[in-house]
Amino acid sequence: MRSRILLAAALLLAAPAAWAQSFPTPGRPVLLLGGFPAGTQADIYWRLIQNQLSAALGVPAVVEARSGASGNIAMEATARAAPDGHTVLAATSAMLAINRAVLPQMPIDTQTDLAPVMTLFEVPNVLVTSTEKRPQFTDCRALIGAARDAPGRLNYASSGIGASTHLAAAQFATAASINMVHVPYRGGPFAMTALYQGDADLFFYQSGPVLDDWRLGRVRLLGITSAQRVATLPEVPTIAEACDMPGFVSTTWYGIVVPARTPRPIIDRLHAEIRRVTDTPEIRSRMEAMGFTMMLGGPEEMRTRLAADIPHWAGVVERSGARQQ
């Protein structure tokens, strides 16, 4: 009996090393998931590092945008996948921390059904309006004045219920004491289309996808939701400055998660390889040009940040009334 116990203990101690050596399974792709449509930030990031990560792991890395339900479809798919490192999700803090406060039902628990791998980057939103469809919104104060003159007439687009684009606008409306209608879309590109067509009055969106149209004069950026102006958009004031809202900050961050019960050696391998291929001058410059601040913290840092964000965003949702009924 004693020898069997010792053998079982030895096998348990050897298991992590075996898991690390067996990952990835030769010839089997690693699936890189995003929770929103192709062309949004997680998708762009994965495609930037796809080839380098594939070479680092020695197997194909396949990018897939699995959008819907404010990112919950991708999170549930990840949580239900085998905990073997072959399913990896780039998730937003909105998916991980805000959805549980906004949505009446969640298919998973983001703290127990997913395991953190690393933080990636942080990004603010910009307040965007169409120069053609809403030329009267020359600045933030003009927009707030219009909303106060016609309560409930203005609407704001979002990339989905519970997304950072939703909560930033809800937080903004509360701070400005205005009443606007929320119109969720299935991702940022669809919300931007609504803005260009005049179906949406405004949209809080990440800066990267709108920079070209801003430079062409198609959109106006009325403010940025960071605490300070960003180097890539020095002309754009903060919301605190432009809208006379001292202390207004509303940013989102991205992190990598895998299914819970994924062995720690696999998590450490993924963290090391993703960090290495990301932390290069080429990738850093491209991400920072889109307004991202690189983070690249490990599992513990991500776990701590998520634990702090959950009650923070629950308070924002409570104060703004943004919860879905």
From TrEMBL:
<feature type="signal peptide">
    <location>
        <begin position="1"/>
        <end position="20"/>
    </location>
</feature>
<dbReference type="Pfam" id="PF03401">
    <property type="entry name" value="TctC"/>
</dbReference>
<dbReference type="InterPro" id="IPR042100">
    <property type="entry name" value="Bug_dom1"/>
</dbReference>
<keyword id="KW-0732">Signal</keyword>
<protein>
    <submittedName>
        <fullName>Tripartite tricarboxylate transporter substrate binding protein</fullName>
    </submittedName>
</protein>
<comment type="similarity">
    <text>Belongs to the UPF0065 (bug) family.</text>
</comment>
<dbReference type="InterPro" id="IPR005064">
    <property type="entry name" value="BUG"/>
</dbReference>
